[in-house]
Design brief:
The chain is mainly alpha-helical. The chain has a single domain (3-149), classed as Up-down Bundle (Butyryl-CoA Dehydrogenase, subunit A, domain 3). The protein is 69% helix and 11% strand. The protein is built from four helices and five strands. The strands form two sheets. It has a three-stranded antiparallel β-sheet. The protein has a two-stranded antiparallel ribbon with strand order 1-4. Helix 1 packs antiparallel against helix 4 (109-149), helix 2 runs antiparallel to helix 3 (70-96) and helix 3 packs antiparallel against helix 4. The longest helix is centred in the C-terminal third of the chain and has 41 residues, at 109-149. The two termini are 29 Å apart. The relative contact order is 0.21.
Length: 150
């Protein structure tokens, strides 16, 4: 890795919107019910949703700062994958619960929203990586053109 991997450039407006939307979906989904069982429901923040709330918030802050680099892209992708793994773990745990005659545990809307936000954040993080790479190549070409004219 070179120092250019972490050189900051500006995010495109489209990618900024995708990052804000996906991070907000992760954060909002963390506050909504993750599990519903009969008349009871449990918000994500009553468990691992606290972590996804923080990760979604970090993605939103990174988008609002508006800089892109391979380091930012890597962080976004890692946070999104971790959020997705948390959702997969909770869904797996729900699948292991034996339903009975009175109550059946089901995934809540918040769990689905965090999962969708995590998928969108992986895509937006990949686009951030591509933008950083293209901007890095443009900078290198401009520097080499400038060097050749001197």
């Amino acid at each position: 890795m070179s120092s250019d991997d972490f050189a900051e450039r500006n995010l495109s407006q489209e990618n900024k919107i995708w990052l804000i939307a996906s991070g907000a979906a992760i954060a909002l989904g963390s506050l909504l019910p993750w599990v519903s069982a009969g008349i009871f429901s449990f918000a994500g923040t009553e468990g691992d949703g606290v972590f996804t709330l923080i990760m979604g918030g970090v993605i939103v802050v990174l988008a609002l700062v508006g800089k892109t680099s391979r380091g930012v892209a890597t962080l976004v992708i890692c946070l999104a994958v971790l959020s997705g793994l948390i959702v997969a773990n909770v869904a797996s745990n729900l699948a292991d619960i034996e339903p009975n005659d009175l109550i059946t545990a089901r995934p809540g809307g918040g769990l689905w929203l965090v999962g969708a936000g995590a998928l969108a954040a992986v895509a937006a993080g990949s686009k951030t990586w591509s933008e950083a790479k293209v901007q890095e190549q443009s900078t290198q070409e401009a520097v080499s053109l400038n060097d050749s004219t001197e």
